[in-house]
Amino acid sequence: MLPRKLEKSFIEEAKKAIEEFFGTNPQTSKDYGRIVSENHFNRLSGILKDNEQKIVYGGHTNATERYISPTILGNITPKDPVMKEEVFGPILTVIPVDNVKKDCISYIQNREKPLSLYVFSRDSLFVSEIVSNTDSGGVTVNDVVMHLHVIHGFPFGGTGASGVGSYHGPYSFAAFSHEKPVLHKYHGAEFINKARYPPYTERKTQIMRSLTEEKIYWWSKYLTPFTVAGGLGAMAFVLQSRFNKIFSAIFQICNNKTSQIQTIVVGRFDLLLLIKEQNF
């Protein structure tokens, strides 16, 4: 998908790149591969046949070799047959639009999530907007395919119709592992479970809901790590000041060598001290 005004120049540059890689006849190039199976060859040949009026470069096939030449389809619209399924072959579709940002985002959002998304632009804001407003298995900016294996530890996988889960590195281990939860219940206190058993009442329903439903309180959004840390710090400061006053009173009693019962009230803390008469 590209701006309409760039379609012709893009196609010409794409032709030059293909011939630079494989020559004017890719079928004779030792670097150009073949379709992996007859089934996929037939599928791709069918795509070319259904869209033969849109072929602007290539389109040659050889069933014996399962050869399909590098092919460019120009002036493609979302309604063309080639856009009904993923290609997975040497066929490049060129979709000219009037507004790339607007049309690209809406086009992706209104269809199944793709396995990969490739964005070519020097405008970092444009790239950020595309990535933030679309969903795909993975994204590479100003290149293709490289997010699959170049960066060690990068997860690779689809989302929605393009796949489930990821692999590579620890993601492979997680994808093929199962976390088995095991709950051990104390064999006694069966009376606690009466709320689970018939006959059911409104009271039992309320009890089970209170125990099983996730509760989201209005104040939960404020429980960030910073507010929790700040609250704990303030609590520690208050407790320290209270205990300092308590210990100060204890030392004062001991120094006065008195025999008495003292009630020291510090805020909400009541401390009852019994000091025996003796020399300290």
TrEMBL record:
GO terms for molecular function: aldehyde dehydrogenase (NAD+) activity. GO terms for biological process: aldehyde metabolic process. One of its GO terms (cellular component) is cytoplasm. SUPFAM superfamilies: ALDH-like. Keywords: Oxidoreductase. It comes from the Eukaryota. Residues 4-180 form the Aldehyde dehydrogenase domain. The keyword Chloroplast does not apply. Belongs to the aldehyde dehydrogenase family. This is Aldehyde dehydrogenase.
